[in-house]
UniProtKB/TrEMBL annotation:
InterPro entries linked: CobQ/CobB/MinD/ParA_Nub-bd_dom, P-loop_NTPase, ParA/MinD_ATPase
Protein name as catalogued: CobQ/CobB/MinD/ParA nucleotide binding domain-containing protein
Domain of life: Bacteria
Domain (CobQ/CobB/MinD/ParA nucleotide binding) ranges: 7-170
Length: 337
């Protein structure tokens, strides 16, 4: 299950992503955590020191090798240079699974030992000025889109992505790559305006968006969210002393989280699990192709110097074609060589 946390800056995306990841790990579920936010905070939120977090490999910096691996023997993709962030997989492409060893994880993912169990963390790397909204091909989150488009994940395994709600995710198809998107909103007008904007973008693509109220303190807060968000409101997470203690440097056990907030995490998990029934591999693949063609036309063809529409394998549907599951054994470096 591919899950995203989006929302306004400071709304609690990282806090809730990290807690959700820990809750899933506690339930024994395999999890890949992805830090795709402008502010790279997920590592520390999962217990890494700042130095450890700063030493995480960056997906953005490894894109050429990732592309080289993923293209595999796909005859429609002549080289890694011809592959843009939206180039969809086809027959011969290498696909990723949540639970496996592969050269992409070996090079880019780091295991994080939690009390609840171990998860893998992937990080896009810190954003710089030139990443933001300028040129699509610079976009660091492009690596995440590429990985999600090549990932086959099952019902009880999760990718949880901490993401911004900013324009970067709408510059391509990233916002459509999730089975469920949690929009974290504080009970304020600004929190709600980000929700409205996201919903507007998402509507045409059938994105499943649920609002998670955060830092909800009083009945008035809940009433405000209900009034502004209506049925899109899934649940709320309260203002938490546990989170505050975490922020102060303590390492409180997940089992000590306020029971109401722990129940909220369980509600998120139930919603994620329920989203499985809504999956449509054909639609998912068709949307990947749609965004690829859009990117190809707007900048990809010019950048690469060929018609990238030819990269689309019309016979291929992600998740329905087991025959393409070539796991490959060559390392990323070897693939490049
Ligand atoms: N439910 C909560 N109770 C108490 N404090 C909270 C809660 N949720 C978040 N916070 C605090 O609010 C601040 C912002 O939270 P967080 O970093 O998770 O937000 P974010 O949306 O990821 O922000 P950014 O956009 O900067 O990445 C942090 O100091 C965090 O500890
Ligand atoms: Mg954050």
């Amino acid at each position: 299950m591919k899950i995203a946390f989006v929302g306004k800056g400071g709304s609690g995306k990282t806090t809730l992503s990290a807690l959700f990841i820990r809750h899933l790990a506690a339930a024994g579920r395999p999890v890949i955590a992805v830090d795709a936010d402008i502010n790279q905070h997920l590592g520390p939120a999962l217990g890494l020191t700042d130095d450890q977090a700063a030493g995480l490999p960056s997906l953005g910096a490894r894109l050429p090798e990732i592309k080289e691996y993923l293209r595999g023997d796909n005859p429609l993709i002549g080289s890694a240079e011809e592959m843009i962030k939206t180039t969809p997989p086809g027959r011969g492409s290498r696909l990723l699974r949540i639970v496996e060893e592969n050269p992409v994880y070996a090079a880019c993912a780091r295991p994080i030992a939690l009390d609840e169990g171990s998860v893998r963390l992937l990080a896009t790397g810190a954003f710089t000025e030139e990443d933001l909204g300028v040129a699509c091909y610079h976009s660091k989150v492009g690596a995440v889109e590429l990985l999600l488009n090549h990932l086959i994940d099952g019902q009880d395994e999760y990718v949880v992505t901490d993401m911004t709600a900013g324009s970067d995710s709408f510059a391509s198809g990233l916002f459509t790559r999730f089975d469920l998107t949690f929009l974290v909103a504080e009970p304020t007008r600004k929190g709600i305006s980000v929700y409205r904007q996201y919903k507007e973008y998402a509507r045409d693509f059938g994105v499943t968006l649920r609002v998670v109220g955060n830092k909800v303190q009083r009945p008035d807060d809940l009433a405000f969210l209900r009034r502004e968000v209506g049925d899109d409101l899934l649940t709320t997470f309260g203002q938490s002393d546990w989170v505050r203690r975490l922020e102060q440097g303590a390492e409180p056990a997940l089992s000590l989280l306020e029971p109401a907030n722990r129940s909220t995490l369980e509600e998120l998990k139930a919603a994620a699990d329920a989203a499985f029934g809504l999956r449509d591999p054909r639609k998912y693949t068709a949307q990947a192709v749609h965004f690829h063609l859009r990117n190809a036309e707007s900048w990809g063809n010019a950048k690469v110097g060929r018609d990238l529409a030819e990269q689309v394998d019309p016979e291929f549907v992600l998740g329905l074609d087991g025959a393409t599951a070539d796991r490959g054994t060559a390392g990323l470096g070897a693939a490049r060589a």
